[in-house]
Amino acid sequence: MNGIYLLCLLALAFSASAEESSLRAVGGVIDCGSAGSLLEIRVAECDQSPCHMVPGRDYDIAVDFIASADSTALNWKVWITLGPVGTPIADLPINGQITAGNAYTLTHSLPIHDTLSGLTVRVVFEIKDVATSRLEVCARAEAFIGV
Fold first, then answer.
1. What is the pTM of this model?
2. Quick check: 40 pLDDT over 80?
3. CATH of residue 121
4. How many distinct structural domains can be found in the chain?
5. How high does pLDDT run on average in the chain?
6. Given CB 3.0 to 4.6 Å as the disulfide criterion, which of 22, 66, 78, 95 pairs with 90?
7. 33-66 b/e with 16+ CB inside 10 Å = b?
């Protein structure tokens, strides 16, 4: 019951009023060292990496995973990297009981800034345990920013 309650809280806390039906599973996502099991990453209007994203718009995303260990606090970061330089575009605390072996979905709306227009960037999703720094989820995909 706690897992269902937490899932509802997470969806309410981080959802940007996205309709789940508009999110598509993205093919070509690479797991970059998850301790938990990455099930899928879903993005509005994208089903294959590299995702084509229009600058100035917000894109709803969801990360589905199975937790590898119990936790009371996670941190979800989303990075954009261009070459060796990484810039965080989301840094979200997730508080509540996470239970090993349970599936969770985190959702958020990411703004795509005009300054990235014309670039192909790597998008990295990291979900870490706050107390242990265990990397529950690490995944990356590419995105082309343009009209």
1. 0.82
2. yes
3. 2.60.40.770
4. 1
5. 87
6. 78
7. ebbbebebbbbbebeebbbebebeeebbbbbbbb
